[in-house]
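Before anything else, study the sequence and fold tokens given here and see whether the fold suits the sequence. Record follows:
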Amino acid sequence: MSFLSVFDVREKVINRQGAGTACPYCGGPVLAWDYDAHMFLCFFPICHKTKRKFYCTICSRRLVPTS
């Protein structure tokens, strides 16, 4: 029995820049990564989003921004 993946999400890094803040866990510098995300349904694009994720360069943790 085979399983066909109907939905597929592909992310591509388009930009990296310093976030200008320090990691609350280790005190290291934080980078902001911009992603171009596409969602496909059976090889047809149905959704396009630009996402921003924050990562610490020393401890490699993903950080969540506070509002």
The CA atoms of residues 24 and 63 lie 9 Å apart. The radius of gyration is 16 Å.
